[in-house]
Amino acid sequence: MSNLERDPRETVAGGLATVVAEPTRRVLGPREVPLGGARAMHVRRTLPHRDLPTVGAWCFVDEYGPADVTGSAGMNVPPHPHTGLQTVTWLLDGAVHHQDSLGNEQLVRPGQLSLMTAGHGITHAETSPPDHPPLLRGVQLWVALPDSDRHVAAHFAHHANLPVVSDDGLRATVIIGSVAGERSPAHAYTPLVGADVELGPDASSRLPLDPGFEHAVLALDGDAVVDGAPLPRASLVYLGCGRHDLDLAADGRGGRLLLLGGAPFEEELLMWWNFVGRDHDEIVAFRSEWETSRAGAATRFGTVTGYDGAPLAAPEMPSVRLRPRRHRR
Ligand code: MN
């Protein structure tokens, strides 16, 4: 999906300033962000957060729905560009049709990973298919690419069969990376993990973690107890590094969580709108090239054919010029 904020700010992300080297426990609530348009859907954004720009290479976490899209067009995100990141589309309910400027078309369903590597640049559109199910619910995640790979040629992969780890009332689908020795086929450019963890009624389990990673958990559904304390729905708990495992439990209704983690992302990033770059001038150049692309020129972003409508216009750049922080520890 797109960051459809009308007035996005440049956000400094990555770097080690917010990495906690030992286990910690910090609960962050979501921001409600309107996605624009007359029937604006809201998303709940937990990354980037002022106090937590990244978790490993995870740099953007939006959760949306459940939205009743019966009798409406549902999701309709016009063609828009990305650079320097991978998008992870993960649905909990419904279906989304992905189309991109490489000619890929994919119907995304719950339990399947669509992983788009924007790299040097790509354009994509996301819409509900005409005969969509009544409910739409999902998460949209971005993974920052390291400098060594952020200019790779764009590509798209769809993984319909992901490994599942089961233990006493716990069922974890490994979206990316590995959990308890089960590895996702998805390609990541930095050490990373993402898993959808379903907890049955009264489940109590311990999930093994990589102690070299920092981790966070997003509460998707139900009443889950994470690391000994209830995690409010839609909140993200940052857990720091150095954990070998994590206690997860649920009450009689069960619960559902999203586990995110990775090696601390040392490089500093600058994020604005749908671009991840390294400095203000680069973001300005991406924006300018996208506007040229919208006017019909052949650019790095290419063109989505088969979408009925105009591409998204880039917002105005903020007048404040941001630069990545200096490293501090
Ligand atoms: Mn997008």
Structure in words:
The chain has 329 residues and is mainly β. 5% of the residues lie in helices and 48% in strands. The protein contains 1 helix and 25 strands. The strands form 5 sheets. Strands 2, 14, 15, 18, 19, 20, 21, 22 and 23 form a 9-stranded antiparallel sheet that branches. A 7-stranded antiparallel sheet has the order 3-4-5-12-7-10-13, with no helix packed on it. A 4-stranded antiparallel sheet has the order 6-11-8-9, with no helix packed on it. A hairpin with a 2-residue loop joins strand 14 and strand 15. The longest helix has 15 residues. The two termini are 33 Å apart. The model has no long low-confidence stretch (mean pLDDT 93). The site of manganese (II) ion (MN) has 7 residues, from strand 6.
Which tags fit this structure?
329 residues, mainly beta, nine-stranded antiparallel sheet, 1 helix, 5% helix, binds manganese (II) ion
Helix-strand layout with pairing:
Blueprint: E1 11-14, E2 23-28, E3 31-34, E4 42-47, E5 58-68, E6 76-82, E7 85-93, E8 96-100, E9 105-108, E10 113-117, E11 122-127, E12 135-144, E13 155-159, E14 164-167, E15 170-176, E16 178-179, E17 182-183, E18 192-199, E19 204-208, E20 214-226, E21 229-231, E22 236-240, E23 245-262, E24 268-272, E25 275-277, H1 280-294
Antiparallel strand pairs: 1-24, 2-22, 3-4, 4-5, 5-12, 6-11, 7-10, 7-12, 8-9, 8-11, 10-13, 14-15, 15-18, 16-17, 18-23, 19-23, 20-21, 20-22, 20-23, 24-25
Bound molecules: manganese (II) ion (MN).
Provide a concise account of the structure shown.
With 329 residues, the protein is mainly beta.
